[in-house]
Amino acid sequence: SAHPLIRAYFATQLRESQPDAWRIAHRRLYEYFRDFPDHVLGKHLPETAEEMELLFRAVSHGCAADCHKEALDEVYIPRIQRGDQGFNIYRLAGLSSGLGAMASFFKDPWSTLAGSFSKEDQSYILSEVAWYFWFLSRFEESAQLYERAISINADLGRWKKASEFARHCSHVQLSNGKIAQAMSLARRAITMANRSKDVDASKQGFAAYAGALLAAGRIRQSALFFHQAEFLQNRLQPEYAYLLDNDGSRYCDLLIEQGRLDEAERRAEQKLNYLAEQDYERSCALNQIGRAHV
Hints:
Elements: H1 4-17, H2 19-41, H3 49-64, H4 68-80, H5 87-90, H6 95-103, E1 106-108, E2 112-113, H7 119-135, H8 139-156, H9 159-175, H10 179-196, H11 199-215, H12 219-236, H13 245-257, H14 261-274, H15 279-293
Antiparallel strand pairs: 1-2
Helix pairs in contact: 1-2, 2-3, 3-4, 3-6, 6-7, 7-8, 8-9, 9-10, 9-11, 10-11, 11-12, 11-13, 13-14, 13-15, 14-15
């Protein structure tokens, strides 16, 4: 086969001299790879990294054919990430492949988006790339993209979404050791959650701020905000006495700092039961149980 530089040269020549033929060819390749799992593998939703590679190629060809919106709505969201499950990240750990697919939605990664995306779609894409960067420990780039997503949603009055991304950005800054920025972003998340009047967003904002306070060594204040978060948790899900998911993990960290090891272990065990069918998060609860025994 030809050297990649030679292929790239002739691809550029074709795109510039015959743009219609270029788009038609990529459109056919998009449809081929989009439909391959159904027609050949007998499954609409790939389950392995090797099978998922077909859909990554579909996204790439779809965007090359100027079908950015179709590639996002038909392939990436419902089949690669399976809606809000984060399947490619949590189940397949397909970070590089996923980030490569997301690059197809940009004219100039990671600044200028291609296509004619709505503000909502722009927010989704920016936050998705920020998520990949977060998992890849590229914290500065992740925070920058989350800030753009926050701004878009604030301008649209989508306060719950803006609060969610401010909370994620707070966690990114905490991972990067920037505690003051993490605290500021968590406070913004609380403010925007209040504007949304969404109880769950408020609960998660309080928990994010509590986690940032804990990292700053402000144990007493951290406990107060964790208690506020857990109060709202009980309003939302009376059947669960404790904070769950990552909020519950951070609360366990607080309890361990306070020397309340038995309670930390009890909470972590309940979290294990809650996450019994979500294997990708079980390690967090197992880690808390182990720390409580140290």
